[in-house]
Design brief:
Elements lengths: L19 E3 L10 E6 L9 H15 L7 E5 L3 H13 L2 E7 L4 H9 L3 E5 L8 H18 L2 E2 L9 H14 L6 E5 L4 H13 L4 E7 L4 H4 L26 E5 L1 H15 L5 H17 L4 E6 L27 E2 L4 E2 L1
Helix pairs in contact: 1-2, 1-5, 2-3, 5-6, 8-9
Length: about 325
């Protein structure tokens, strides 16, 4: 059956080509225009759909992943959700290694998509180098035991192609009118890939990598723990390439979380902590550049993934129990 142009074959066809919006309320007076790439429009609500698909398709193409195969990955959650979705569609099984440091919404989402989960216990819900390395080792052991294909996201260069494509989208959406780009760093593929592509178009675009202030590995060589999910592995990751980056910035967990709440309350944008960190730095850069310039950053994923975390769990505590009239079903009257 031939599909009509407006009907697509699967949700995989909805990955990429995400919209971009201008932040009009949260940017201070005198700030450059701040544009936000809305990656929550991808099927699982995350930009990680892009890189997960690239890693799987590259492995299919060169034979590392055969039909009916098994996929293994260590993840803070979003990559695992994306891989679980792709495996469900393509007929692969998936083992995902994650941690209690990451939101239960992500774990539930992965499980709902059919992934088998292994949980690595954290030190009080904190993200640090030890947790990352423990997850990596567990993935290695499971891959060895099952004979499956480990996508190994921290060391897998196949994903960079996904972010070259994102950078191309940004260039076209802005008509080349972009002065700076900034993004938080996890695998480093996102900031690297976007920066490489934007620099290819215009070397003068100022590209900034952001890391957690509590774990400034790239800028200070110092590791620590933080609670910005999906970023800050705690060590220099294999895909990090300083040649693509013009500046390194830091954003604290508190700054990132507070900005998430501001985005929700003032812009109606419901996002996760890495997005909050991105916008904090975008505004800093925007104030340095001034009005008439343009800064682009990324809404990495949806806040739905973080409802039970410290970012949003206090939000509903001001709710009140209704003490007005209620319907008496038996008597058919209000009381």
């Amino acid at each position: 059956m031939t599909l009509l142009p407006q009907i697509q074959g699967s949700v995989l066809d909805r990955i990429g080509n995400t919209p971009m919006i201008e932040l009009r309320k949260i940017a201070p007076a005198g700030c450059a225009r701040i544009l936000l790439k809305i990656e929550s429009e991808n099927p699982t609500g995350s930009m990680k759909d892009r890189m997960a698909l690239e890693m799987i398709e590259a492995a299919e193409a060169d034979g590392r992943l055969e039909p009916g195969g098994h996929v293994i990955e260590y993840t803070g959650g979003s990559t695992g959700v994306s891989l679980a979705m792709i495996c469900a569609i393509k007929g692969y099984t998936a083992s995902i290694i994650t941690s209690d440091a990451f939101s239960p919404e992500k774990r539930n989402h992965m499980a709902a998509l059919g992934a088998d989960l292994t949980i690595i216990e954290s030190d009080g819900g904190r993200m640090d180098e030890a947790l990352t390395r423990n997850m990596i080792e567990a993935a290695r052991v499971i891959a060895e035991r099952t004979g499956g294909f480990c996508t190994d996201q921290l060391a897998n260069p196949d994903q960079i192609k996904a972010y070259h494509k994102m950078g191309e989208e940004i260039w076209k959406q802005t008509n080349g009118e972009i002065d700076a780009f900034t993004a938080m760093t996890g695998t480093a593929a996102c900031v690297r890939g976007n920066s490489e592509r934007l620099h290819k178009h215009n070397p003068e675009i100022h590209c900034v990598a952001i890391e957690p202030a509590e774990s400034p590995v790239f800028s200070e060589g110092r590791t620590g723990w933080h609670k910005i999910e999906g970023v800050g592995a705690g060590f220099v990751v294999p895909l990090w390439d300083p040649a693509a980056i013009d500046q390194i910035s830091t954003v604290s967990t508190d700054e990132a979380m507070n900005m998430c709440r501001e985005l929700a309350a003032r812009e109606g944008i419901f996002a996760g902590t890495s997005t909050g960190g991105n916008v904090v730095d975008a505004i800093r850069i925007g104030m340095e550049l001034g009005s008439g310039k343009t800064v682009v950053t990324i809404m990495c994923d949806s806040g739905v993934k973080y409802l039970s975390t410290d970012v949003y769990k206090e939000s509903s505590k001001s709710a009140r129990i209704w003490d007005g009239p209620v319907w008496n079903g038996k008597g058919g009257e209000w009381k």
